[in-house]
Amino acid sequence: MKKLSGKLHIISLGCPKNLIDSEVMGGLARLSGMTITDEPDDADTVIVNTCGFIRPATEESLEVILTLAEAKKKNLRNQRLIVAGCLAQRYGNELLAEIPEADLVIGTGEVGNIVRHLRRSRRTAVITRPDFLMSADHERLLPTHSVTACLKISEGCSNACSYCVIPSVRGRARSRRPDDILREAENLVARGIREIILIGQDTAAYGRDLKTRPDLQELLGALASISSLRWIRLLYTHPAHISPGIVETMARHEKICRYLDLPVQHIDDSVLAAMNRGTSSAGIKEVISMVRTIMPDAALRTSLIVGFPGETKRRFERLVDFVRKTRFDHLGVFTYSREEGTAAAKTPSRITQKEKERRREIIMSEQAVISHAINQELVGSVQEVLIDATSGRRDYPFVGRCRRQAPEIDGVTYVKGPGAAVGRFVLCRITEADHYDLYAQII
Predict the structure, then answer these.
(1) Cys bridge to 148: 16, 195, 260, 320, which one at CB 3.0-4.6 A?
(2) Would you state the pLDDT for residue 77?
(3) Strand partners, 399
(4) Is 287 left (phi over 0), alpha (psi -120 to 50) or beta?
């Protein structure tokens, strides 16, 4: 088949799972003959890979699409605009009808068919079943000189939380075969990647849909055997599915960062039941206790939702008390967003947006105090740090992360001293700390 030509620019919005889809589309387009450009004004085709998980993400996606549409009107090169991703899967035909500058709208099931769509000349929306599952055969377009990469071990979700649109836009949970995941990990390491971050909608439920029933702890052990891989990090582990075996495997292997992401969302049993989280307050606390018994030095991250229908003042206070007592190392808070098509959308909510924001600020203020205290306890300790970039600061010229910090979502570690270079692992002594960031001197 004839090679494609022209320049392509991809804008990826939302989570790392969406970013991997963008990297796959970029890799396929480059293999087909297109040139990837970092400048949207220089591109013949622009793909915006949208997020539509909650209202703020939808609004951001629409803003980007409309900005590109305006730019297209002024572009004399007849630039093509392709809208992809979760928002496209949810509202494909509506987007095509409302945004005449969009030449093509494709859903999440069409990631692997991007080259076919790039050849299309007819203006249309292609929204199929969200059943795409990448494999190691998909060459990803990674950032130049990157030493960190996410690895998607599964796609979709079968948990059916009442507030969440993911099952409708990403499909039911589909796990990749262990041998395929290991092959991709080895490919990434061969390309210079030293930190692999395992992601999926629910990584702790990995393998439950496969006939051979592989599990996460087996996968972690196999990944830890890859010789040139330095760090393995685990995100998105549903507290209802995390097991002692998974945590014991993490504790056993030095390469696996003692860092666990447990998105609990709430702690009140009535709210958890309304959310259809499949766990209870007691179950969540048992999991946290189990993790801290097996890995006393583990850094714990969580995410919470405030303002969910039925969250009374007393139930909210119970959540605040839980945050104070648990002392998570890292914590994020979302205000409840009523999403069309979800079970929770049918429940009337009497909590105003202003009150939701107030509750979010209360918890984030509590967490700031906790994070500051935890970081102060780290002063004087020795940490292995991966240098991510130069900082632009004179006092601490480099910025990186220690094992207890995930990229983009947690704080960072500012570094000074001889031997620092982007992509290098260095041993540092923590000299200062603030609410979220650490400051370190290379030993």
Answers:
(1) 195
(2) 60
(3) 389, 414
(4) alpha
Burial class (CB in 10 A: 0-12, 13-18, 19+), 292: middle
Longest distance between any two alpha carbons in the chain, whole Å: 65
Q: Which helix (H) or strand (E) holds 374?
A: helix 353-378
Tokens of 147: 């030493």
| 398: helix, strand or coil | strand
The one-letter amino acid code at 384 reads: E
Task: Pull the structure tokens for residue 189.
Answer: 């390491």
Q: Which CATH architecture has domain 142-261?
A: 2-Layer Sandwich (3.30)
For residue 420, the model assigns a pLDDT of 87
What class has domain 7-126? alpha beta
Give the whole-angstrom CA distance, residue 80 versus residue 309. 42
The angle that helices 244-252 and 281-294 make with each other, rounded to 10 degrees, is: 20
pLDDT digit string, tens, across residues 197-238: 999 999 999 999 999 999 999 999 999 999 999 999 999 999
The answer to whether the pTM exceeds 0.85 is: yes
Place of tokens 């500051």: 372
Residue ranges in the chain whose pLDDT is less than 50: none
> Which of 44, 39, 119 shows the shortest CA–CA distance to 75?
44
Which CATH class for the 382-442 domain? Answer: mainly beta
- Which tokens hold the place of 126? 């292609």
Residue spans of the domains in the chain: they are 7-126, 142-261, 382-442
- What distance, in Å, lies between the first and last C-alpha atoms of the chain? 56
